[in-house]
Amino acid sequence: MIKVRSDEPEYARLWDKETKDKNRYGKNIELTEEGDERRDKSLNINGDCGIGENPNRNKQHGFFLNADNCIGCHACEAACSEKNDNPAHIAFRSVGYVEGGTYPDYQRLNISMACNHCDDPVCLTGCPTRAYTKFTEYGAVLQDPDICFGCGYCTWVCPYNAPQLDPIKGEVSKCNMCVDRLEVGLKPSCVSACLGNALDFGVIENIPEKRDQAITEIPGFPTTDITNPNIRFQQKKQNHREMTRPDSMPVKYHKDDAAGQYKPVVDEKMGQEKHWNFRALLTSHESAHVIFTLLTQATVGAFLMLILGESLGFTGFDLLQAYSLHMSLVITIFVLSTIGLYKLNMHLGKPHRFYRGFNNLRLSPVSREIAGVSMFYTGLLGYLFFAAFDNGFMDFFAEIFAYLAVISGPIGLFFMYQLYRIPARPFWDHIQTGTAFVGTTLSLGALIIAAVCLAILPLSALAELIPSLAMIIAAGLLIEGLGHIIHARDMQAINNEGAASYYRQTTQYGKSYRLRNALLATSLILSSLIMLTGLSGLFGLVLASFLALMLIISAAFGRSLFFVLVIPTTMPGAFFWKNDGFVDHARETGLADAPQTGVVHERHHAFKVDELIQTIKENSLSDMLEHLKWIFGKK
């Protein structure tokens, strides 16, 4: 237990006496019952087995923000970071703001936000390593960085920027509600440090002294129906009808008179000019996910066609059972699948802890995806080994592993789709995610088979197979294309962060988006033509190569757009803090080298190969090793 100072001010002490039974979501504030084995257990803070004397210890606590009083001094941030010994680029609590009006009637509304220790913490259900636990003590949602392997999925699903992924340490950490202070009757450090008496803390639904309002939403705060957060606000000053963000996010908040709330709408701050943005598109932080998802979907599709194609009645698929061609296809599928899994694993903050991804099969779609894809890979590897012997006894085992892969592959892809259906990311939370995944499974799977066949056999021997593969490619492209059309229609209609993502798609990445659409449409036309007429001669090979190139580029652009465009229902940042625009500027200009800016060169980004080569040429071996350490985030 920490020691309480003799001169601790009264405002720093917990004050709750009477509490309510239910919160506004209809859930019990008391988190245990008499006789519950979870009562009166020690949190073992710093190895201390003592138990706090707070009579409300097993009741849900939460923060209270009087937004009218917040002056944006960031004292809460500083106190939190000091207590938790956070580096400059990590802040468990941050102060952003929205603004409205113009001089002389300008208004700025500051919002101090940390983890809201929600009733339904999506970070807990999403985390594949089970690093999160919701305790009955104070209702705190605590996270153990030592268990985390740095996948960052919790940062995707949380609507409030609470989990912080440190690219240097390769792990996530977040606000722990200062439970060590709560155990001795003190409020969290951020609350005790607040200069304007804006932040408060106590049992949820209790309105602090000299406050008379406890609302759940203010302009800039995401919808509460995703997680039921435990934070309440007072904000009585009249806001302008439209409040904008100072960061680069193309979102603003407009008052809906019918609902009496501020709703997110598109802020066309980028204008309507269309750009390519190739660099940002193809070298994003999520490039590993682009490669993994495309290769996994393609290899699952190819293996399903290889094993089931003939029995499903596809013309020409009997040709694939010839031993040399069959094994060439299996080896190609195995190599591509290995590359995809390698890229995904190396994207983790702690790649050597990959096995922890199976820890939360009961709740996490990430764990289930990992399990499904891993079983597919195991089946593929077993099939490759036993089928290579080409005799009756080994064929029995090869068949077992083949059907293991056939069953587990689609299961892995289903949970891959599920993990992207994130309410906090409306651009992804759409059926189009499924149509895109199914489309690439069919089109790229068939492309793998066609490429290997054309590399081994003459075109004349593939007269029956090529139209069947072209038909599958066309079906995949048609499914994907229809999904894109429906998605574009729906994103424009919902008028929230999903619509803002669509706005970025048609402006910031407008030319790349048009190129993807043109390539997809042209590929659909060519594959349909090949399906009807087949391929022959040199012209046929050129046409097939052209189609393959277009399919690959279209898939890479489409999947990259999927990742770079998404805008979460997240908290507003400030001009220099929690602002993607400033982060990009800092990295481009070198400001990121100054730690006080709170920007870090991410370890997961593309390595600076040119700088490394220059270092090797100009410096000693020890300097080169130091540069390598910096690149890999171990300095």
Q: How would you characterize this protein structure?
A:
- By secondary structure, the protein is mainly alpha-helical.
- Among the domains are: 282-565, Formate dehydrogenase/DMSO reductase domain (Formate dehydrogenase/DMSO reductase fold, Up-down Bundle), CATH 1.20.1630; 574-600, no CATH class; 605-635, no CATH class.
- Helices cover 44% and strands 9% of the residues.
- A three-stranded mixed β-sheet has the order 8-1-9.
- A hairpin with a 6-residue loop joins strand 10 (242-244) and strand 11 (251-256).
- Helix 7 (287-308) packs antiparallel against helix 8 (323-347) and helix 7 packs across helix 15.
- The protein is globular and about 90 Å long.
- The two termini are 34 Å apart.
Features:
single chain; 635 residues; mainly alpha; Formate dehydrogenase/DMSO reductase fold; three-stranded antiparallel β-sheet; 44% helix; globular
Biggest pleated-sheet summary: 3 strands, mixed
- The count of helical stretches stands at 18
The residue ranges in which pLDDT falls below 50 over 5 or more consecutive positions are 604-612
Q: Tell the overall outline.
A: globular
Architecture blueprint of SSEs:
Elements: E1 61-66, H1 75-84, E2 94-100, E3 107-113, H2 122-126, E4 132-134, E5 141-143, H3 153-157, E6 164-166, E7 171-173, H4 179-182, H5 189-193, E8 199-203, E9 231-234, E10 242-244, E11 251-256, E12 261-266, H6 278-282, H7 287-308, H8 323-347, H9 365-387, H10 392-419, H11 431-456, H12 465-494, H13 497-506, H14 510-533, H15 537-565, H16 580-589, H17 609-618, H18 621-631
Parallel strand pairs: 1-9
Antiparallel strand pairs: 1-8, 2-3, 4-5, 6-7, 10-11, 11-12
Helix pairs in contact: 7-8, 7-10, 7-11, 7-15, 8-9, 8-11, 9-10, 11-12, 11-15, 12-13, 12-14, 14-15
